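ok new one. same drill as before - structure tokens go in, u give me an amino acid for every spot. 221 of them this time. try not to just spam alanines like last time pls lmao
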């Protein structure tokens, strides 16, 4: 068995927080300006994971830079003002984060960093993380490993003593490319069958089971 980690890096949307409704509301706000009908939450959820620009491209079925920029101009301020209307931590996240016996926790998300920080602070868990890196924090996004490498550099933790926990094969790809262990969760935006088929180092059905999966504690009842 691998040694318990010193560093845990978390994805945000679909891993720590359920942000489906607020993302859908902001996206539909942008679509209204183009005379487009609203999309349901499940449809929007399937578009999430590769950053806000690609979210817009998928939802508007276009890469036309004029359309994408206009949609982003409508999406960003609305989401910034409403990203905590319905977004909540998943069950057991707050309690588990407070008791994880590791040197450092961090967040690596393809969401813009300012939105990520607003959500973490608004949900009163921002102080738990020594680093928050978003999709606009550097030139590359997950699955590129650059964000993982930057967090390792800031914390001084070796790849062998770090783990990334996410809800998509994008997260798994970033972890594998950086040489860190990877765990995937079953409550997020990814399909469980696809996630299990990708063969992560561990798979979680409850956030409360994370310490046991990492050899940090026994399972909670």
């Amino acid at each position: 068995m691998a040694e318990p980690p010193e560093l845990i890096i978390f994805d945000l949307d679909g891993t720590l927080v359920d942000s489906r409704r607020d993302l859908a509301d902001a996206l539909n706000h942008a679509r209204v300006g183009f005379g487009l009908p609203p999309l349901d939450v499940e449809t929007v959820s399937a578009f999430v994971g590769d950053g806000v620009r690609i979210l817009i491209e998928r939802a508007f079925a276009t890469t036309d830079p004029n359309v994408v920029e206009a949609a982003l101009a409508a999406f960003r301020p609305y989401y910034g003002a409403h990203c905590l209307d319905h977004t909540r931590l998943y069950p057991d996240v707050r309690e588990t984060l407070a008791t994880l016996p590791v040197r450092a926790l961090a967040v690596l998300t393809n969401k813009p960093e300012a939105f990520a920080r607003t959500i973490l602070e608004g949900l009163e868990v921002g102080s738990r993380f020594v680093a928050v890196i978003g999709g606009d924090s550097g030139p590359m996004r997950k699955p590129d490993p650059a964000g993982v490498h930057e967090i390792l550099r800031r914390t001084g933790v070796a790849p062998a003593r770090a783990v990334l926990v996410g809800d998509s094969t994008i997260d798994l790809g970033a972890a594998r490319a950086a040489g860190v262990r990877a765990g995937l969760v079953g409550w997020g935006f990814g399909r469980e069958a696809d996630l299990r088929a990708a063969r992560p180092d561990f798979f979680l059905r409850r956030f409360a089971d994370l310490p046991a999966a990492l050899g940090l504690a026994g399972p909670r009842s």
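The mean pLDDT is 95. and btw The first strand starts at residue 7 and ends at 10.
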